[in-house]
Structures are given as structure tokens and as C-alpha cells.
């Protein structure tokens, strides 16, 4: 497994899409919920069709969970990170499904999609 994992460290904003597109899975191993109010990086991963493995906090679950675009880790548990990465590495069907789901999430959150949602909301208020 150690040959399959790369930890690049800090990545300049301009290079982030390259790394996201090259990744098989994006890992967000947060230790506290306070540090992750709404992690935009999860949507960036979705835009790159990259499934997510992230710490299990309410805010993260609200993005990843209902959309089935990844899985969760126990915060602070190295074993949990290892287990989830092994699962993604070994389960091709899960990788395929979560990749498709990530793309769907990204498409729903494009500006034209958001505008359509607001339009529907405003129409329903006016009716």
C-alpha cells in the first residue's frame, strides 16, 4: 500500500486541478469538526471526478454522505485511514460508483445548475 499512496504536501492553487484529476481518491483526515465548517475542497474533488475519504463530521457527512461520493474515517484514527484506502484500492466497483457520484455532485453545483435551483425556488414563492 505504501507504494500506492502519495502525499504531495502544499500544492499551489494553480496546480490543484492537476493533482485532483490525477488522484484516485482524495483524503481529508480532519481531526476536529471545528476545522471543517464547509470544506470547499470536497466540491473541488467532485469537480475532478475524484471520490472522497473524509473524517466523519456532520458538515462533511452533509456533502459526502447523501451523494455517496466517498466514505468516512474515524477522526484521528490512522487505522481507519488505512482501512478505507485499502477498500478503495481493492474495490473497483465502489471506485467506479463513487467517481460517477462525485461527477454528479459537481454538475449539480455548476453556476447554471445553481441558478436553475434559485429560479425554481423563486417561482414556487411567487405561485
Automatic annotation (TrEMBL):
Record's keyword annotation contains Transferase: yes
InterPro entries associated with the record: Glyco_trans_1 (IPR001296), Glycosyltransferase_grp1 (IPR050194)
Domain Glycosyl transferase family: 2-102
SUPFAM superfamilies named among the record's database cross-references: UDP-Glycosyltransferase/glycogen phosphorylase (SSF53756)
Pfam family, one: Glycos_transf_1
Record key words, sorted: Glycosyltransferase, Transferase
GO MF annotation terms: glycosyltransferase activity
Name of the featured protein: Phosphatidylinositol alpha-mannosyltransferase
Taxonomic source organism: Halogeometricum pallidum JCM 14848
Amino acid at each position: 500500500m505504501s507504494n500506492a499512496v502519495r502525499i504531495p504536501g502544499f500544492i499551489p492553487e494553480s496546480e490543484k486541478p492537476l493533482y485532483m484529476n490525477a488522484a484516485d481518491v482524495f483524503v481529508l483526515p480532519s481531526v476536529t469538526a471545528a476545522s471543517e465548517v464547509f470544506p470547499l475542497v470536497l466540491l473541488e474533488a467532485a469537480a475532478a471526478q475524484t471520490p472522497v475519504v473524509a473524517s466523519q463530521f456532520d458538515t462533511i457527512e452533509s456533502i459526502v454522505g447523501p451523494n455517496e461520493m466517498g466514505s468516512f474515517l474515524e477522526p484521528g484514527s490512522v487505522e481507519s485511514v488505512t482501512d478505507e484506502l485499502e477498500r478503495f484500492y481493492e474495490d473497483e466497483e465502489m471506485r467506479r460508483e463513487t467517481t460517477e457520484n462525485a461527477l454528479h455532485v459537481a454538475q449539480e453545483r455548476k453556476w447554471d445548475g445553481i441558478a436553475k435551483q434559485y429560479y425554481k425556488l423563486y417561482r414556487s414563492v411567487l405561485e
